[in-house]
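Researcher: Let's do a round of design. I'm pasting the structure tokens now; please hold your answer until I've finished.
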């Protein structure tokens, strides 16, 4: 159970999400127009969520300050460009659509585990607004990991992403590293989502909160450390490639994995030798 705060201008804007998440977490509402909307208050939470927030810039960027301390942020959508989505560098441009659309999950990298790849899913009820960002490398960071993608519209040439994650250390829209993991979600917070939509929300929250870091050493057949080698992390259950790492100058590599999931890693010795692959099996958080 996590302690989560949802920041918004009005409670009515987030009642659907507040109710849904309260079944598994301690969830609080923070009125961004009130005196509670401060760095000191927000820093007491495990996760900050932000939706339809007009006050982030005006209030001195309290969410950004907490984010820089290492508190993960799930920034919500709509057409307010002065909330956490902009202040932490996820996007400098949001847009929105009206109605019900189909989306597909197009990427399950980096410990997002649920397999929605071959499934069209309905996220939204009829006649509601939802937001998206563009996968155009202009208004959004280049190394975004998209999870849910809005279909192409006739007047757009860029893919419209309704849900995405951004790993710690990757570059934000201002070309500076994200201080910790964060995510964008364009789903409306004031209505009840479908089961598929909530599965994605819960997977993103798990990705943001439940991390284990494990250090391993890459060695050759004689036990010598192999520096600067590519290391590939795979799921033991499916064999899918999860992410790619590189060992440091001492041959050490730090895997970031999701709690209670099993992995294995393979490294290839660029120098050759009798064995050209080294496996690190049964990595369990």
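Researcher: That's everything. Go ahead.
Model: Designed sequence:
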């Amino acid at each position: 159970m996590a302690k989560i705060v949802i920041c918004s201008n009005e409670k009515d804007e987030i009642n659907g999400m507040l109710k849904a998440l309260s079944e598994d977490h301690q969830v609080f509402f923070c009125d961004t127009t009130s005196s509670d909307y401060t760095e000191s208050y927000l820093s007491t939470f495990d996760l900050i969520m932000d939706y339809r927030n007009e006050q982030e810039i005006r209030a001195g960027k309290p969410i950004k300050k907490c984010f820089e301390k290492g508190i993960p942020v799930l920034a919500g959508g709509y057409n307010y460009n002065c909330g956490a989505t902009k202040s932490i560098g996820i996007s400098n441009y949001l847009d929105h659509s009206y109605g019900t659309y189909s989306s597909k999950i197009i990427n399950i990298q980096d410990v997002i585990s649920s397999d929605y790849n071959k499934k069209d899913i309905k996220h939204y009820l009829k006649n509601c607004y939802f937001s998206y960002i563009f996968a155009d490398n202009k208004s959004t960071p280049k190394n975004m990991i998209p999870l849910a993608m809005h279909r192409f519209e006739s007047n757009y040439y860029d893919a419209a992403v309704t849900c995405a994650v951004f790993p710690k250390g990757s570059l934000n829209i201002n070309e500076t590293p994200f201080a910790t993991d964060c995510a964008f979600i364009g789903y409306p917070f004031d209505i009840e989502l479908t089961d598929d939509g909530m599965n994605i929300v819960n997977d993103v929250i798990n990705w943001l909160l439940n991390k284990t870091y494990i250090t391993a050493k890459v060695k050759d057949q004689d036990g010598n450390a192999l520096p600067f080698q590519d290391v590939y992390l795979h799921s033991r259950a499916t064999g899918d490639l999860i992410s790619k790492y590189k060992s440091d100058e001492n041959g050490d590599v730090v895997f970031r994995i999701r709690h209670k999931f099993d992995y294995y890693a393979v490294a290839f010795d660029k120098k050759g030798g009798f064995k050209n692959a080294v496996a690190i099996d049964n990595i369990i958080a």
